[in-house]
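Sat 14:20. Reprocessing the chain from the morning session after the first attempt stalled halfway. Input below, unchanged.
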Amino acid sequence: MIFQGKKGESKMKKRLIILLMMSAVLISAGLVINRVIPNATLTDNGDEVSQGTRQANEQKSLVLYQKLLAYYNSVASEEIDEQKYGKKFGGAYIDDNGLLNIMVVGGDKEELDVIRSVIGEKGYAVSSCKYSYAELIKMIDRVSESIPTIMDAGVLISSVGEDVKNNCVVIGIEGCTKEDENKVRAIVDAPYITFADEERAVKK
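Finished this time. Tokens:
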């Protein structure tokens, strides 16, 4: 999502629309795929995984995730703020080896049992996290709605999205400074919000 003021508004709106179109599919599905990957990667025990193997793993991971997402959709209620995801589901991502990694809030046993009953017990990894995927998405919506106010404060947000692996929301700011971060936090804040600059690494 991207956004600016007066003369620059039309151009920024065009950029926003383009970014929304590019990211909508992954955001709506709650699945992040690492795209910056070499032709061969290493497993935890040092074995090399070829590009073909990684791609095969990725396809299997997508199938597993689609099954899980279909389950969440089938039990979703319009009255639930969690939208189409369980309260303890923290999102999922595909790692450099093409394997599905599922995040579960607090390693909740009931949620793990649900996941295993839906997609089995093999072919993926599970990690504990603090915040649900639904919570991250709701914060992204809050930040997006606050863009005009944030712009009035003199801060140009270039992107906002979820980082499933690190269980946080990342706000990208062009030429990000500590002052910019403080201005944003004065308008919208949460312990899982982090900031990033195109020229710098993500920081909390």
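The longest helix spans residues 51-75.
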